[in-house]
Amino acid sequence: MKPQALAIAALCALGPAAVMLPATAHAAGTSTVYVAVNGSDSATGTEGAPFATIQHAITALSSGSGAVVVRGGTYAQRISLHGVTDITVTAAPGEHPVLDGSKLAVPTGVRSAMVDIADSTSVTVHGLDITGYRTSDITAMPIGVYVHGGDTGVTVSGNHVHAMGNDNGTLGSMDMNAHGIAAYGDNPKRSISTLSIADNEVDHLVLGASESVVVNGNVDGWRITGNRIHDDNNIGIDAIGFEQTLPPAYRYTDLNRARNGVISGNTVENIKSEGNPAYWSSSGWCNCADGLYVDGGTHIAITGNTAHTDDIGIEVAAENARGAADHVNVDHNTVTDSRYVGITTGGYCDGQQDCGGVQTGTSSANTFTDNVLRDNNTDHDGSPEFLIQFHESGNTITGNTICAAGPGTLLVGTVARSTSGKGDKVDDNRYSAAAASATTAQWGWQGKTYTGFAAYRAATGLDAHSEFSASC
């Protein structure tokens, strides 16, 4: 959460009689049952006599484990996988099963999901179209796929989660929330571990103050890879710490931080907060939806992602004043055409009234290397390609290619009063600007703006081995 800054698919015809499971769908010796829209829960669950409901099929697995194969069609059904082991729920190969929540009531006051996984081991959900689950109840939280409790070896892959969310329109309220795919590690005794969120498409979500894909709290060892996340009205991918996910005694401990994770090979596009009621203020909409965000996480690799036309491409920070973002490696990402900035680190406020009076946490021991930042700050308000904010120190910013196409500065910490940057290593970067030369381009550091590459280097001692070229 960042206080600053659905259609029913047509019924698919049943496919060929012979349905082959992927080689990895279930282990040898386990059972396989089938579900189809023209099935019956009084049937045997075989391919020729399928069940009608997915939940019945899960319960009917003869050995307590195995595979549930869902044939094409539309199912107004939720799924619960609580305390189970070695179960796969998968689309029949070449078919398109839709979990449609548009006729289902979203419970008030709780998180509620179309697919709910808790306290389970070796569970896979693959190839489902999940849509339509939405509400206008400000206290309800609809979710596409929800992993919580303590889980090991959960895989959420190849699904399409779209056109759902919380439609409450209360301007300026951070109380409306929804998620596409969410993992909440809310058990202090057992983490969510070996979690994979891979190759999903997550789009056209109405999220309020929440995120498209999120790992939050006691989630230790996870991968978010190869997903396409686009056209959502808040954060694309988020790794969170220090929220009220664990009980109070654990809140400010390392157990309550998404950690030891990888965010790799994702494409995150058109993530924008304009029009999201949660982000309205008297001054208008903020441009504060991150494509990729670490908020209080630790020991995370963000590598090889593409962020395009988001408000903010990548952010590493901690919103909670007692929190920190540290040991996050941001490398080999491409960030283009962000509305506000390409990459940013450090807290967005230092407690002063002109930034909302909010005290934020720290950013340190992070690296930003070999990234490409180009044509960001499309609002052309003078914001930079790379922004350093409050409470930032001891970070490494090296080997990046940074091209400013507009009149914005290149690498800057122009936040008023900021003394960030202490102990930072900033060097071996390649700068260019379409609208400026080496003598007219601007950099900022510790609240001061410098015109000209030579003047900036002389005054700060930074970028001694970096280069500037005249064009991008």
The CATH class is identified as Mainly Beta
Helicity range: under 10%
Alpha-carbon Rg, integer: 23 Å
Ends apart, CA distance between termini: 34 Å
Strand content of the residues, in percent?
35-45%
User: With helices defined by DSSP (H or I, 4 residues minimum), what is the helix count?
Assistant: 2
Question: Could you list the spans in which at least 5 consecutive residues all have pLDDT below 50?
Answer: 2-30
Number of domains: 1
Q: Total strand count, please?
A: 44
Tell me which CATH architecture applies here.
3 Solenoid
What's the layout of helices and strands?
Elements: E1 31-35, H1 54-60, E2 66-70, E3 73-75, E4 79-82, E5 85-91, E6 97-100, E7 111-118, E8 121-126, E9 129-131, E10 134-135, E11 141-148, E12 155-157, E13 160-166, E14 179-185, E15 195-198, E16 201-206, E17 213-217, E18 220-225, E19 228-230, E20 237-240, E21 259-264, E22 267-269, E23 280-281, E24 284-285, E25 290-295, E26 298-303, E27 306-308, E28 312-317, E29 324-331, E30 334-336, E31 341-345, E32 362-364, E33 367-369, E34 372-374, E35 386-388, E36 392-393, E37 396-398, E38 401-404, E39 411-412, E40 425-427, E41 430-433, E42 442-445, E43 448-451, H2 453-460, E44 467-469
Parallel strand pairs: 1-2, 2-5, 3-6, 4-7, 5-8, 6-9, 7-11, 8-12, 9-13, 10-13, 11-14, 12-15, 13-16, 14-17, 15-18, 16-19, 17-20, 18-21, 19-22, 20-25, 21-26, 22-27, 25-28, 26-29, 27-30, 28-31, 29-32, 29-33, 30-34, 31-35, 32-36, 33-37, 34-38, 35-39, 37-40, 38-41, 41-44
Antiparallel strand pairs: 23-24, 42-43
